[in-house]
Automatic annotation (TrEMBL):
The record marks 151, 207 as: Positions MEP for the nucleophilic attack. This is Bifunctional enzyme IspD/IspF. Belongs to the IspD/TarI cytidylyltransferase family. IspD subfamily. In the C-terminal section; belongs to the IspF family. Its EC number is 2.7.7.60, 4.6.1.12. GO terms for molecular function: 2-C-methyl-D-erythritol 2,4-cyclodiphosphate synthase activity; 2-C-methyl-D-erythritol 4-phosphate cytidylyltransferase activity; metal ion binding. Residues 218-371 form the 2-C-methyl-D-erythritol 2,4-cyclodiphosphate synthase domain. It catalyses: 2-C-methyl-D-erythritol 4-phosphate + CTP + H(+) = 4-CDP-2-C-methyl-D-erythritol + diphosphate; 4-CDP-2-C-methyl-D-erythritol 2-phosphate = 2-C-methyl-D-erythritol 2,4-cyclic diphosphate + CMP. The keyword Ligase does not apply. The record marks 19, 26, 251, 350 as: Transition state stabilizer. Residues 219-384 are annotated as: 2-C-methyl-D-erythritol 2,4-cyclodiphosphate synthase. Residues 1-218 are annotated as: 2-C-methyl-D-erythritol 4-phosphate cytidylyltransferase. GO terms for biological process: isopentenyl diphosphate biosynthetic process, methylerythritol 4-phosphate pathway; terpenoid biosynthetic process. Its cofactor is a divalent metal cation. The lineage of its organism: Bacteria, Bacillati, Bacillota, Clostridia, Peptostreptococcales.
Length: 384
């Protein structure tokens, strides 16, 4: 397709992802079962016109990435993006001193790039020696000194950026000789008086930079519970002991509000219900505070890779009046689940003296909650 020139993709993936502030560099966060880097790399290995894919990764991820990405050449990166890409260019230069190779430089954290964009950049780079993917700027851009800029002349620059090896090598050598650090590869080529061709890429080709850029799975769950009122028991709702002449009957403290919430959370994660985790046949749970159980549910969710986003619980209770206790309930729930109190809602309603709750025979509660996937990943070399 491109005469005798090889096409090599260089995927820059040696950053630490400071702005993402996750427990691992963002390219190693798992989304839908695989790391962002695997998805990005697959976009290039799937192209029949790409002869080789190289990934530049943090030095301590080299071994793990060799296992994670079979068939991909893995090399250690440097301090800055420019150092990492230069490490790959130097290797390619040793293999092709003529510099005919077409080098496609791409960010390891742009997993949504399409094959059409990769193909278009490759073709233009082959034809003109330098081409970049970009999209038209949508916002108005104001320069601090020059005021509002003419938007029709502005692009948001993406990757891949494709270059003839001889050109990009010279551009990098010049930049390093002059101690110049830029924010992309095209910027270095432009310093040599070469203007790369712009290929209009796709709006979907974002660079995953901050948590907002992650597609995190969201799930909802509902819970419902009822307990009988009994004169010989204490009334505990949302972990608050409420002075009243009756309390709820049950194996634990029978905190019906917290039970409904736990079932909603477990349901959202498809982890069953509280009967499964805390059976009333076990003496371990006799008289236990349901707030302790709620803490356990929050940690079960976390082990599954989810966190609570918000919850809304309604207690259906004729008497006593609960308004004065609701703040304390929200505080208890927020503390046990590790979220801000602002995302926990507790409401109470009566049934106008109708039904078992209206007659004061029992209290019911229903809950709904939203949970979201927690960005997680690891060093593929050290994972079990
Ligand atoms: N020393 C570096 C720094 C960055 N990159 C790569 O360059 C791409 C774009 O960089 P950026 O989004 O800035 O990534 P990070 O440097 O990891 O992010 P941050 O600036 O938030 O730390 C990423 O795929 C990143 O892994 C690299 O290969 N080597
Ligand atoms: C190369 C790049 O992705 C083009 O948009 C961008 O410049 C990388 O910049 P960053 O500072 O490394 O995020």
């Amino acid at each position: 397709m491109y005469s005798n020139s090889r096409v090599v993709a260089v995927i820059g993936a040696a950053g630490s992802g400071k702005r993402m502030a996750a427990s691992v560099p963002k390219q190693f966060i798992k989304q839908q079962g695989r790391t962002i880097l695997e998805t990005t790399v697959s976009k290039f290995t799937d192209c029949d016109f790409v002869d080789e894919v190289m990934a530049v990764v943090p030095p301590d991820y080299v071994d793990g990435c060799r296992k994670l990405l079979p068939g991909v050449r893995i090399i250690p990166g440097g301090e800055e993006r420019q150092d990492s890409i230069f490490a790959a260019i130097r290797q390619l230069d040793r293999e092709d001193p003529e510099g005919d190779t077409i080098v496609l430089i791409h960010d390891g954290v742009r997993p949504f790039v399409t094959q059409d964009t990769i193909r278009a950049v490759t073709e233009k780079a082959f034809e003109k020696g330098a081409a970049i993917a970009a999209v038209h700027t949508k916002d108005t851009i104001r320069h601090i000194d020059e005021g509002t800029l003419d938007r029709s002349k502005l692009y948001n620059v993406q990757t891949p950026q494709g270059f003839r090896l001889s050109l990009i090598r010279e551009a990098y050598e010049k930049a390093f000789a002059e101690k110049y650090y830029g924010t992309d590869d095209a910027g270095l080529v432009e310093r040599m008086g070469v203007v790369p061709e712009v290929v209009i890429g796709g709006e979907e080709n974002i660079k995953i930079t901050t948590p907002r850029d992650l597609r995190r799975e969201m799930r909802v769950g509902t819970g419902y519970d009822v307990h009988r009122l009994d004169p010989g028991r204490k009334l505990v709702l949302g972990g608050v002991l409420i002075p009243w002449n009756k309390g709820l009957l049950g194996h634990s403290d029978a905190d019906v509000l917290t039970h409904a919430l736990m079932d909603a959370m477990l349901g959202a994660a498809a982890l069953g219900d509280i009967g499964k985790w805390f059976p009333d046949s076990s003496p371990k749970y006799e008289g236990i505070s349901s707030i302790i159980l709620l803490k356990k549910v929050a940690s079960l969710l976390n082990d599954e890779g989810y966190e609570l986003v918000n919850a809304d619980v309604t207690v259906i209770c004729q008497e006593p009046k609960l308004a004065g206790y609701i703040q304390a309930m929200r505080e208890n729930i927020a503390k046990a689940t590790g979220v801000d109190m602002a995302v926990i809602s507790v409401k109470a309603t009566t049934t106008e003296k109708l039904g078992f709750t209206g007659r004061g025979e029992g209290i019911a509660a229903e809950a709904i909650c939203l949970i979201r996937e927690v960005p997680k990943g690891g060093n593929p070399g050290t994972e079990a």
